[in-house]
UniProtKB/TrEMBL annotation:
Gene3D superfamilies: Immunoglobulins
GO terms, biological process: regulation of leukocyte cell-cell adhesion; regulation of T cell activation
Location in or out of the cell: Membrane
Name of the protein in question: Ig-like domain-containing protein
Species: Cirrhinus mrigala
GO terms under cellular component: membrane
InterPro entries in the cross-refs: Ig-like_dom, Ig-like_dom_sf, Ig-like_fold, Ig_sub, Ig_V-set, IgSF_BTN/MOG
PROSITE patterns: IG_LIKE
Domain Ig-like per the UniProt entry, residue ranges: 1-104
Alphabetically ordered keywords of this record: Disulfide bond, Glycoprotein, Immunoglobulin domain, Membrane, Signal
Length: 108
């Protein structure tokens, strides 16, 4: 699990192996522990798509676009709140394959 302190920022780790560029891929982060999976962050067609992002996460999530070139799809979550605690799924998709990873966030 990844540990965070309420009020601080945290990085939820996720990356493509081998370290190939993820710039042309779709990167989707969502909460996988809720009854209805909740979108946390979506990167598609070379830009962040925040229109379907819940207000709760708006302005608090960020992918490092320079790091995407190195296959790093980690998500920065700012101003962590106790309600952010849970399981997050990082889903990466290209034209030829897809993969995902689960990150458990614990908030102290």
């Amino acid at each position: 699990p990844v540990f965070a302190v309420a009020g601080e920022d945290v990085i939820l780790p996720c990356s493509v192996k081998p370290n190939i560029s993820a710039v042309d891929m779709r990167v989707e982060w969502f909460r996988s522990d809720l009854k209805e999976a909740q979108l946390v962050h979506l990167y598609e067609d070379h830009e962040d798509r925040t229109t379907d992002q819940p207000d709760f996460y708006r302005g608090r999530t960020k992918l490092n676009h320079q790091e995407l070139q190195r296959g790093n799809t980690s998500l920065k979550l700012s101003s962590v709140q106790v309600s952010d605690e849970g399981s997050y799924k990082c889903f990466i998709e290209s034209k030829s394959w897809s993969d995902d990873a689960i990150v458990d966030l614990r908030v102290e």
